[in-house]
Amino acid sequence: MEHTMEQVQQLIAERKFEQAAKALDLAISEHPEDPAGYTNFGNLLVTMGESPRSFAFFEKALSIDPLYASASFGYGNALFELDRYQEALDRFNEAQKSGLDGGDLFYMIGRSALELGHSGQALAAFQRAVELNDQDLEARFQYALQLARLGDLDTAEQQFHLVIEGDATHADAYYNLGVIAAFQDHNHQAKQYFDRALALNPKHILAANALRTLSEKKD
């Protein structure tokens, strides 16, 4: 069963939805008391953009095992996709209480907390996500953003540089480094960062506006 679930998750990742659905149908019929099949079917529906249909599968998994953390996490993702952030956060907290402790969980706790305006909780969650998976550049970028918003510009700057080390094409990281440089009146350096952001993404409106503002300062 476990090997089958790994194969199913691979099919979902490859967006081979029909094959995944058939494999999950078979798994559920052969192992109706295993919450993994229902959980993965729920995850499949979320990936397909059919989050409302996924609820029944996550609820079935949790009715079999109320402490099945993967089902709580999947349920939270489904709720998040529907902008039901407080409910999503509640499910993510359930997943954590049930033993889930991965970077993806804390990243989603951070995203939910951010949407709810809980900036301190979001910062702590993104920091934990980075600690658990230092290769997660999106978590690191969100961590850096929160640091900057809360006024810790030195640490934010370090984190944005680490994002760029991992992905030299991350236009938003360059833009935010430009914002920090401009705030510190390092205008020449700020211009270089904004120019780089625009070179990577010619439609980066914020970087274009920032360059215009810098130009007006000179004039």
From TrEMBL:
Keyword Lyase attributed: no
TPR repeats: 35-68, 103-136, 171-204
PROSITE patterns in alphabetical order: TPR, TPR_REGION
This protein's record includes keyword Ribosomal protein: no
Alphabetical UniProt keywords: Repeat, TPR repeat
One Pfam family it belongs to: TPR_1
PANTHER family linked: CELLULOSE SYNTHASE OPERON PROTEIN C, TPR REPEAT-CONTAINING PROTEIN MJ0263
Protein name stated in the entry: Tetratricopeptide repeat protein
Organism of this sequence: Sporolactobacillus kofuensis
